[in-house]
Each structure stands twice: as structure tokens, then as C-alpha cells.
Amino acid sequence: MTRLVHSGLEPGVNSASRLARLARANAPAFTLIELLVVIAIITILAAMLLPALATAKSKGVTVACLNNLKQLETCWHLYATDNADQLPPNDFVYDITSDTPIDAGPSWCTNVAPYDWTIAGLQSGLLWVYNASPGIYHCPADKSTVDPHNGNLGGQPRVRSYNMTQSINGEPDWLFLGSIPSFTRFTVIKAPAPGSLIAFLDVHEDEIIDTEFGIPTVGTYGYQSQWWDLPANRHTQGCNFSFADGHAEHWKWKVTKVVTVARGNVQPLAPGELDDYNRVEAGIKQTFD
């Protein structure tokens, strides 16, 4: 009788597979402490990287907003070129108390930011013909939505975040008895000079109404430093501006901009805010030539 000798191999398993299995079984494994150390290192790296990624994203949004303002500024210059040096009218003034326009244009734009969810007010503006992209009217950092109004349920994203300042062919003389100075032609811009004169700016989402940004000027209504309209605070406690010479800038505020009054009301300066206010005031035409 032939005697079978046990070789230690399982039926159907060759020696190479057997050795591989033994090698895996005897391979060193991570201990619990080692795994916890690896997890801790990954957590620390994530904590270091996430703020940097958030900062990079914020800077990207700021750059996109600045690009929007520069495009609006380009439309502004094209209008002046096509209209014998005349600057775009800035004559859309809205009374939120009576819910009616005080003056309805013609103007660079006729959108009521808190209420109008369609782009009709952009299309009726005098700059639309130069760039029919509604996106350039809206700051990508502005997450505000349209308020319920006249049957509109609200909740839709707003279509406008920017205003043109009163210094640019502003409200008609009859409206405030000719007490707010503005430039009507590009070639007469001085004091401030084109490089310092604010044309467009990002306006605070809790304050924006019509399309004109205004602050008191010398001799206006018993002049004092106060906000008629409030600049935005969306860009890392900062705001974006474009100027009459075509460039755009990001300004960092010393004091956070927070609306403390009902929409449409005059807001006093917050403690420590005078430097911010003076910086804006320096970019607004103050006197009649």
C-alpha cells in the first residue's frame, strides 16, 4: 500500500499562495496609538489649510467684484464717448416710505434693489446697451435676497449690489433745490480729480434702495458727518470702488459697517468711524464750481 506523506499544504492551494498568505499574516500592523497620531496630524494639517483656502476664496470673490465695477466703469466711459462728453444720468431716486420713485430717470439704472427680482430695471438703464450681462451689476459676495413686495413672495437673489455716486450727473437740481453738486461732463471733472472721484461702489445689502449713493456735502442740510447711504462690508470688512479714471480699488474699513437704522434713514457714525467716512467723503464732489 502506498503511504501518503502530509506536506502541510491545503488541497487546491499551491505553495506560492500559501507563502503569500503567511507573509500577510505575519506583516506588522499599525497600533492604535500610531493610528491616533496619524489622525491627529491630518487634523492639524486640515486646520492649517482650511483658513488659507477660505482666504483664497474670499480674495477670489473680491477680485470678481472689482472686475464687475471695472466693467460698469467701461460702460460709463463708452456712454460719455457716444454722448459728446456727457456723463450717464444718475436720476433714479426712490422713496421707500411712499413706495414710489421721486424721480424715475432716465438713468444709468432704474432697479429697486430690495424689491425688483427681474432684470427689467437693468435693461431700462442707459448702460445696458454697452454690456448686456446682468452679472456685472451684482457682487458675488452679496447673498441678500429680494424682499416680499406687491405680490412677490421674495427669496430670490437680488440682481444689483452697486450704486453710482451723487457726484456723477446726480439727482436733478429741483429735487434737493440744487444743493448737491455733481459733474455732468467727463472733461470738467476736478476736485476730486478723476483718479480720486468715486464713480461706482459696493453698497451695504441692508441699506441699498435706489441706484444713487449719497452723503452730505458742504452746506447741505446743516452739513454734518453722517451716512445717507452705507458702503458695503462684504469683503473681509472692506468695500470695492471704481473711479472716474477707470481703475478700481479695495478699501479695508477700520470700523465694521453695520446698518443701525431703518432702511432709508440717516445713520450716525459709529465710534471710531470718522476716518472711514472722511475717506469716502474725499472721493465725493463737495462744492459747486
Structure commentary:
There is one protein chain. Helices cover 26% and strands 12% of the residues. With 289 residues, it is α+β, with helices and mostly antiparallel strands. It has one domain (48-281). Strand 1 (92-95) and strand 2 form a beta hairpin. The longest helix has 51 residues, at 32-82.
Enumerate the strands of the largest sheet in spatial order, edge to edge or round the barrel: 5-3-4-7-8
> Percent helix among the residues?
25-40%
Please write the string of helix (H) and strand (E) elements.
HHEEHEEEEEEEH
Cα radius of gyration in angstroms: 31 Å
Low-confidence stretches: 1-10
Q: Please tell me the total number of domains.
A: 1
| Principal-axis shape | elongated
Strand content: 5-15%
Q: pLDDT average, as an integer?
A: 87
Q: Can you summarize the main beta sheet?
A: 5 strands, mixed
Cα distance spanning the termini: 127 Å
